[in-house]
Amino acid sequence: MGLIQPPDQLKLGRAADEWSADTLLRDKKYQEAFLILSRLEEHNSPYAMVALGWIYENGYLGEVDLISAEYYYSRAVSLNYSEGFVELGRLKHRIGLDKEAREIFSAGAKIGNISCMARLGAMMAAGEGGKKSNDEAIKILTLPAKIGNPIAKRALYQIEFENSSSIFRVIIFYSKVLILIISTIYFTLKDPYSERSMR
Hints:
Helix content is 74%, strand content 0%. By secondary structure, it is mainly alpha-helical. The protein has a domain at 10-137: Alpha Horseshoe (Serine Threonine Protein Phosphatase 5, Tetratricopeptide repeat). 37% of the residues are buried.
């Protein structure tokens, strides 16, 4: 009867190139990574779109270029790549377009991206880009906080602090925040790409 279908060589090659580019980025070899990512872009690799956006946003090949960063992040979003939602929303928030950032994080949260959930909940809790709603924020922040996302944990601590009037609760709040900062630094140094790091 039938033979097992051979794997798609294009997809296997693209995955190997993405792995190579990721390794080069982690080793801060941006020019070499850029060459691989440019090839991957031609094949609509969503990973390449996010990585190219990140390179431009941080100016790793020269000047910071937020227009190009937004372009590549938007392309990743158009391919429904969940990390694209995180990076585009983060960029919009960075440049003060909070309403757009909140909408992007909301779309990313709907497809299950934990970082988008955390950032959306934090924006809701702070009233950034729309109505402030601690109740809705708590619902959204619970899962990312359980996983250890520092943005979600910090937002939940802030809500707890706002609802507290006791000096003892204030001391507890600042203790939790200090522990969170220390653990976030630790996890960021260990793996800057993990959900428990601050990106």
